[in-house]
Specification:
Layout: E1 2-7, E2 12-14, E3 20-22, E4 26-28, E5 44-50, E6 55-61
Parallel strand pairs: 4-6
Antiparallel strand pairs: 1-2, 1-5, 2-3, 5-6
Length: about 60
């Protein structure tokens, strides 16, 4: 699943026009957070859902070509 960061502190990631995930539903890998640099607004991220869609693991940023 691909999402777009729409807010930081706290993080919010938009999955589609109807669904925006708040930080309480998100778990981040160190890779996703850029080894301490964090994510910026408009960054696109790759996620997978767990716990039946109750939590989402943010794996990494999407590389733009």
């Amino acid at each position: 699943m691909i999402g777009t960061v729409v807010a930081v502190e706290p993080y919010e990631i938009r999955v589609n026009e109807k669904i925006t995930l708040t930080e309480k539903f998100l778990v981040f890998t160190e890779t996703a957070l850029g080894n301490g640099y964090g994510l910026d607004i408009d960054d696109r991220v790759v996620m997978i859902s767990s716990n039946g869609g109750q939590r989402y693991l943010v794996i990494d940023r999407v590389a733009e070509a």
